[in-house]
Amino acid sequence: MYRYDQHDHQIIKERIAQYRDQVRRRLADELTEEEFLPLRLQNGLYMQRHAYMLRVAVPYGMLSSTQMRKFAHIARKYDRGYGHFTTRQNIQYNWINLEDTPTILEELASVEMHAIQTSGNCMRNITSDEFAGVAADEIIDPRPYAEILRQWTTFHPEFAYLPRKFKIAINGSKEDRAAIAVHDIGLTVVHNEQGEVGFKVMVGGGMGRTPILGSVIREFLPWQHVMTYLEAILRIYNQHGRRDNKYKARIKILVKAIGADVFAAQVEAEWADIKDGPATLTEAELQRVAAYFTAPAYAVLPAVDAEFEQHKADNKAFANWIKRNVKPHKVAGYASVVLSLKKPGVPPGDATADQIDFVADLADRYSFAELRVTHEQNLVLSDVQQSQLFALWQEAKAHGLATPNVGLLTDMICCPGGDFCSLANAKSIPIALDITDRFNDLDYLHDIGDLELNISGCINACGHHHVGNIGILGVDKDGSEFYQVSIGGAQGNNSAIGKIIGPSFSAGQMPEVMERIIQVYLRDRIDAERFIDTAQRIGIAPFKEYVYATTIKTLEHHGEDAGTVVSY
Ligand code: HEM
Ligand code: SF4
């Protein structure tokens, strides 16, 4: 993986020194909170409901075990013993003291990490497929390009004050696992007919109050031009993006307003001026960066390990875990393992310091000391020998990291909601926990099969509810928390925005609402049809009809009377 050079170390060090002085001045009241706000945000520090929150970037989701251990250390020493992995390959700490932040940033810098540009109207962390470099369906390893883009975007002087935040995702596999359609720019690494490498470029995707899927503005961009072309996109956005209204400031609004064709033509015209300029990528520079991403020392192994196959045949629980949490690898005899952070009683994406340390340890022993953060808020050991999967499974299970639910209903995305976030209209974590409790039967979950449930506590859509097969959005009605449900959203290759099924529900009604939605699916599915395929085939009407047909029971521990009618 990428290692900082002297220049990287130097700029991060200088930035921390500058920030340390800003914090000192704030604590001495030489800076007002208002003056300090943009300074702290530039360093990833937010103020939330109860405390400061620090967001740290994991570039394209790749981590060394050393970096992971540092996360555990920070959680233990400066937070309340846990961290929260987000959908854009960041970790967030929710209980940070301002005084500690410069030292935390120093600790992070010692393992080549930082929180710069994890907030503000700038280019944010570059995200990618969690299986980049190892996926069996990979066309081209996107990591060298992701790293080049990371270097290009960090501290880019022209794009430090964009109309709004800007998110870039890059995918190099057949399957899109980076949600590129809901990013400001989504890049797919492809070959053209001549076998040359380049990018399919999508722009104008995003969620929030106006969810829009990105449009393809160029089918093939030769790799040498990735920075100049992106520069042209950003220039058009920087000039014409709306600065008068925060809610209409994202590039998606501009692209929608003028049309993708017109936008593309403007980009091409702008690009003509800078194409072949100094930011053109050279073979030498690509090779320099690509050298950091050479394959680890894989053993030569048979494609199938007999003992592993035997364990699968003998042990149903192990077989279930393999089926859901273990993914094919491009090297014979290896696999990638998803460690699920979703289980009863734990907010999706949360990991304790002990678990983080333990995962670092697993990475050392089973996966060349490397791991990944997924956009589904899970962790990945990318290079595990098939013959070691059984031993790994037993260890992961003993530490609560082997729930065999990857891609199933309880492997949900969920934002921190009203428990932490000051922008929330409703809590989202208790909804996630109640649904996890309600669907605690693994056989039932496996029978339901692939299903993406996404929950957000407000319209900002951090929990990706728009693109959940089932989406739950927390809304405020006269000071009370309610939940709006949508169906038919999807992320990945066939991205779609879900449709709202009707009036919202109280928190206590949500597990039963989910149950009814699932019943309609099980009733109407044809053969092994996935939930999303059934939903897209039959539309929302049958769900709507059944969910609202009769009174919905509520959970008693929410303090509501059982038998309450559907709330409007
Ligand atoms: C308390 C912590 C958080 C705060 C204050 C926060 C704040 C925000 C805000 C203000 C937006 C809307 C941006 C816009 O209007 O364009 C947003 C969107 C988003 N956030 Fe968060 N967020 C938090 C936690 C999270 C977490 C935990 C995740 C991952 C689960 C996440 C992932 C996202 C994503 C993916 C979007 C949507 C971006 C888009 O529109 O394309 N955030 N967040
Ligand atoms: S969706 Fe809303 S409530 Fe949830 S984290 Fe984002 S801003 Fe906060």
Describe the structure.
The protein is of the alpha+beta class and 568 residues long. It has four domains: 6-110, Sulfite Reductase Hemoprotein, domain 2, CATH 3.90.480.20; 134-291, Sulfite Reductase Hemoprotein, domain 1; 306-399, Sulfite Reductase Hemoprotein, domain 2 (Alpha-Beta Complex); 413-548, Sulfite Reductase Hemoprotein, domain 1. Helix content is 36%, strand content 18%. It is built from 18 helices and 21 strands. Strands 16, 17, 18, 19, 20 and 21 form a six-stranded mixed β-sheet that branches. A five-stranded antiparallel β-sheet has the order 1-2-5-4-13. A five-stranded antiparallel β-sheet has the order 3-14-15-12-11. The N and C termini lie far apart (52 Å). The model is unreliable at 558-568 (pLDDT under 50). The site of protoporphyrin IX containing FE (HEM) has 26 residues, from loops.
